[in-house]
Each structure stands twice: as C-alpha cells, then as structure tokens.
Amino acid sequence: MAYKLIDKEYSHTQGGYVQDYICDTNADVASLPVCRCGSSALVIDTGDVYVVNTTGEWAKVGG
C-alpha cells in the first residue's frame, strides 16, 4: 500500500536524522528507505512497531 514520513529529527549522537514513519501494512516496511538506528515505523493495519536496530535492519519490536 503506502508509507508516510511523519517526523524527522537530527540526532547528534547518531550523526544524522532519525525518522518516524506510518505504514498501511507490514509489507510496506520492506519499502522503507535505509535509516539510522532508532528510526521507527508504526503499522496501522496491525499496530506493530518496527525500529531500525544496530545493524541497520528494520526489526519488529517484541518480535
């Protein structure tokens, strides 16, 4: 379906921008751009939350 950037904040500790997204479905998470550790995505369809981990991958919280 789709995703939308809802917030973008510069992180001095990360040396770049941490971004927050809203996605329609879990499948949309695969379409998200490469982001800094700590960036997050909320999936509307399921309520799942994904966060970019220390290896740069989108990981489901609690999953």
Account of the 3D structure:
There is one protein chain. The protein is an all-beta fold. Helices cover 0% and strands 44% of the residues. It contains no helices and 5 strands. It has strands spanning 3-11, 16-23, 40-43, 49-52, 58-60. Strand 1 (3-11) and strand 2 form a beta hairpin. The protein is globular, with a radius of gyration of 11 Å.
Can you give me a brief rundown of this structure?
The protein contains no helices and 5 strands.
How are the SSEs placed, and which strands pair?
Elements: E1 3-11, E2 16-23, E3 40-43, E4 49-52, E5 58-60
Parallel strand pairs: 2-3
Antiparallel strand pairs: 1-2, 3-4, 4-5
Q: Helical residue percent? A: under 10%
**Most strands sheet:** 5 strands, mixed
Shape: globular
Please tell me how large the radius of gyration is.
11 Å
Count of structural domains: 1
- N- and C-termini, Cα separation: 22 Å
Given helix and strand content, the structural type is mainly beta
Q: Biggest sheet, strands in spatial order?
A: 1-2-3-4-5
Strand content: 35-45%
Helix segment tally: 0
Instruction: Please state the oligomeric state of the protein chains shown.
Output: single chain
Mean pLDDT, rounded to whole units?
A: 93
Helices and strands, in order, run as: EEEEE
Low-confidence spans: none
**β-strand number:** 5
From the structure above, extract its key features.
63 residues; mainly beta; single chain
